[in-house]
Amino acid sequence: MAETEAVREAGTEAGTEAGGKAGGGSGPAGRVPRVLLVLGTSTGGIGRHVRTIAGGLAAEGRPVAVAGPPRTDAAFGFSQVARFAAVAMSDRPRPVRDARAVARLRALAAGADVVHAHGLRAGALAALALAGRRTALVVTLHNALTAGGTVGLVYAGLERLVARRADRVLVVSPDLGERMAARGARHVAPAVVPAPPLRPAARPAAEVAAELGAGERPVLLTLARLAQQKGLETLLDAAAGPFDGPPPLFVVAGDGPLRAGLLARIDREGLPVRLLGDRTDVADLLGAAAALVVPSRWEGQPLSVQEALRAGRPVVATATGGLPGMVADAGLLVPPGDAAALRTAITRLLGDPVLAARLGAAAAARRLPDEAAAIRAVVSVYDDLTGSRS
C-alpha cells in the first residue's frame, strides 16, 4: 500500500473510531462521548500522559483515537490501545505544514464529541480545526514558555487563541491557570498528570554509585531533558562550588540539544558533573542518590519529582510553577536561576543527616495521584461537556 493510501486509511479508521456523523457535536445524554486525543512532538511526559489516558479510556470500553506525529506512536505505542492517525505537527510555527495539520485534524474530528489536545501548539491547531463546529474542545497545558522575544509573542498569541476557543483548559500549575484566565479562558481547572508506578531498584545503591564513579562522595541526581527550560547552567554554576571538602557528584540523566555545550563547559572547568544520557534505570539511580536536584526555570507536574517522592528521596528544587505544591515538606526550595542559593540548600541537606531523613520520610509519605485518578478526572470533564453519564 502506498504511503498516502496508508495515511488516508488510518485517518478514515480514526475518524470512524472517534465518532459517527460528520459535524461532531455534543453526545446525547447517556451516550459515551467519543474522544479524539491530539498531541504534537513528544519524547517524554506529554506522550506518556496521553498514552495513559488512551489506555484507560480503551480499557473502559470508551471510543478513543489518537492523532499525532508518527514517531510518537513508535515511542509510546498508542496504536496498541487505540486507533492512531498520523498528523505531521512541528514544534514551531510552519504555515504550510500547520495548514495541512489543521485540515487533517478537521477530517479526523468529524465524528468526535470531544477533542482533547495536549500542549499549546496542538491545542491551537485543534482550535482552528474545530472552527464553526460544536465539538467540545479540551486543552491540557503541560508547559510554560521561559523565553521572550519573537517566540514569546507567538506563544502569547497561541494562548489567546486557546483561551478563546477551548471549552475547558486544564493546567499543571497554578501560575498557568492564572495566565490562561487572564487571557480570557472561560473554564480553567487543574490537570491530573501522574507518573507511572516506580519499579523497585534492581541493583544495590553501592553498586550503582561505584558505576558512576562517586567513590565516597554523595550522589545528586537530576532527571531532565538537556534543554533551556531545565536551568542546567544554574546546576553547573552550583556544582562549581566552593564546597567545604570534596564536592558531591552531580549526575544528569537525559539528553537534548544542549548536551554538547554543557559537556564542553564541564570538561573545560573540570566540574564534578556527569552527563549520563538517556537511562532506563531511574529507580536504580534514585536508590543511589542522596537527593533529586531540579534547577528548572519552570516546571508543572514533572514525573521526575513524583518518582523521587515515591522513592523516598528529598528534593532540592526551584520554587516555580507546580513544584512548591508537589515538593511541599519533602524538600528545600530556592529561587530559579540562583546558583548560590541552590548550592547552599544542597550543602545544608548533605550536612544535616537528621534533616535529610526527615525530608526523605516526608517524601515517602506524600500521597500522589495515580493513573486511575487521571482517567477519572478526564472522564468527568468529557461527560460534563457532553451531558453524558456512564
TrEMBL record:
UniProt GO BP: carbohydrate derivative biosynthetic process
Q: Report residue spans for region: Disordered.
A: 1-27
Q: Highest taxon of the source?
A: Bacteria
Q: Where is the composition biased (Basic and acidic residues)?
A: 1-11
Instruction: Point to the regions of Gly residues compositional bias.
Output: 17-27
Domain Glycosyltransferase subfamily 4-like N-terminal, chain residue ranges per copy: 44-194
Classification via InterPro entries: Glyco_trans_4-like_N, Glycosyltransferase_grp1
The UniProt keyword set, sorted, is: Glycosyltransferase, Transferase
Q: Which GO terms describe its molecular function?
A: hexosyltransferase activity
PANTHER family in alphabetical order: SULFOQUINOVOSYL TRANSFERASE SQD2
Q: State the name under which the record lists this protein.
A: Glycosyl transferase
